[in-house]
Amino acid sequence: MSTKEKIQEDLLVDTQEQNLNEIVLYNDDVNTFDYVIDTLIYACDHTPEQAEQCSILVHYKGKCTVKTGSYDELEPRCSKLLQAGLSAEIV
């Protein structure tokens, strides 16, 4: 087995072992686009463009994955979204 093959194999194993979760934001009829955008910028460190795109997807599709990562990283961010009155969960 060559060194290159061994490195690729190790990389694939590391990638498969990481369990990534997602924060899914759901549509509601209460919050405005501007409020959702501002909240995503604050809670998820989105750029204004990212936040706007997510808010449009949530509006038209009913839900959108707004952040991925480990559960420990996502839990405080999801809590901020929930405290702000948005509907979200970690899946």
TrEMBL record:
Annotated Adaptor protein ClpS core domain residues: 17-84
Gene3D superfamilies documented for this protein: 3.30.1390.10
Keyword presence, Cell membrane: no
Organism from which the protein derives: Gelidibacter algens
InterPro entries (UniProt xref): ClpS_core, Ribosomal_bL12_C/ClpS-like
Protein name (database record): ATP-dependent Clp protease adaptor protein ClpS
Entry GO MF terms: peptidase activity
Keywords (A to Z) from UniProt: Hydrolase, Protease
GO terms, biological process: protein catabolic process; proteolysis
Keyword Hydrolase part of the UniProt annotation: yes
Pfam families, per the entry: ClpS
Domain of life: Bacteria
